[in-house]
Amino acid sequence: MAPRKLRSELWFGENDLNGFIHRAWLKAEGLTDDTFRGRPVIGIANSWSEATTCNSHLRTLAEHVKRGVWRAGAFPLEFPVISLGEVLMKPTTMLFRNLMAMDVEECIRAYPFDGVVLLSGCDKTTPAMLMGAASADVPAIMVTGGPMLRGMYGTEALGSGTDVWRYWDELRAGRISAEAWCDMENCMSRSSGHCMVMGTASTMASMAEALGMTLPGNAAIPAADSRRLALAEATGRRAVEMVAEDLRPTRILTREAFENAIRVDMAIGGSTNAIVHLVAIAGRVGIPLPLSVFDRISRETPFIANVRPSGQFLMEDFFYAGGLPAVIRELAPLLQNDALTVTGRGLGANVQSAKVWNRDVIVPLDRPLGKEGGTVILYGNLCPDGAVLKQTAASPHLLRHRGRAVAFESKHDLMARINDPALDVDETCVLVQKLGGPRGAPGMPEWGQLPVPEKLLRRGIKDMVRISDARMSGTSYGTCVLHVSPEAAVGGPLALVENGDAIELDVPSRRLTLHVADEELARRRARWSPPPPAFTRGYGRLYLQHVLQAHEGADFDFLRGGPGQDLEPYLPTSH
Fold it and tell me: Would you say the pTM of this structure is higher than 0.85?
């Protein structure tokens, strides 16, 4: 291709005062002119942090990306961005996803990068980086950190998250000992990487690959596998080529790419969180992605990946079975295979040689685990703007259910009363928790897998219908209705639910109904008042003022659309 003027040349190529200053200060790092002058500058956005355990190995990954950049004749510059650690960060990483996206976007705009490699891993780091890169719209490619190796308890393989919730309930029910519980703590997480089930981290790595923003095979290579380091080097080389081709996110993140990603998500039984993140990423490039699209594609897409929490196996097994390329090739008749990817080729061309090595893990399209995709969208007078439910991780006998509401006004109310022996609840009831949404919690935390009351667990009850405006961990399971929109904190119908109300869930019909007369709901609404704001200053105040509802991606209203705009203020000017 014909050479193109590099953006970085505005920093390093001018023989003026600005050029002198930029070059002189960079030479403080021991660099010479020919190291960076006239070469593409590739930024490496690193979300490494010791506080984000899933991403604690990304320093090593960055070195392999740099090797690829150097080999391709370009100049790598690694820079830090906010790191969101799902386990340690409170009140919830989702509160800070948009802040991280802003950090990534502004760093890409403000520094002399011709292209960028995004290093992510833990749940929110992947969508946040994709959102920021989409808005900045310089050539960008992602490498995720990869899943941990399977945990092992004796001869039993354990999956982080999924088996934590399962055995926590077993401990609460008195069916395992405290000693066994402690033993599991020591063997659950035995390598670097993110959760090794099809939780949010694995799902969003899969979404990045299905969108075309990673090299093929990225999603499932275990973090401890040397092939992930080789992939990182190849990604560094490819980033340089993408600069020459001017292959920007807006050329890749098309409507066809998003529909492909949604279809892959449904086929792998991905995390419900993928919905809110995909809507947010699409919003950054000006593509409306209503929830109805998700449900249409779910109805058309068989479920074919037998991975926890919707199935039996772990991500390590999924990788050995062929990984995401094998799934994409299996789905080829349903995909838009010409959708452009970071390779410069279509999605279908990337996986022509992919094979399924284990049909117990990745089943044939014509003999699926389920006729429909993993996640469904519900509507009704309790969720006018939609709600989501992961049907592949729910109890079949509860997919059609009518029960009496047991309502909790907040997370604190739930934790104070859920295990009270006097709580008026049985297995036919519907647990309802309010104030778990974007504004109400705030931040839309993973509170949606409401605990089953201890007195029911001891009777052998393991699942109930549970409803909230919160999210739940992608590693979770159960008949949980999530993302109810509009949320209770802004006066959504969920705010009006009272103890004893009849609620009907009908997943085949995609309905969620509160059986209370309109007149009575009007009386309740007249008495309702919004909760006081959780924040009065700082980022929290900005968040409350601008966050959108769940069905809109919970992004900030002022960050949607307009990729690549407003670049002029970021370019060097004369002193």
Answer: yes
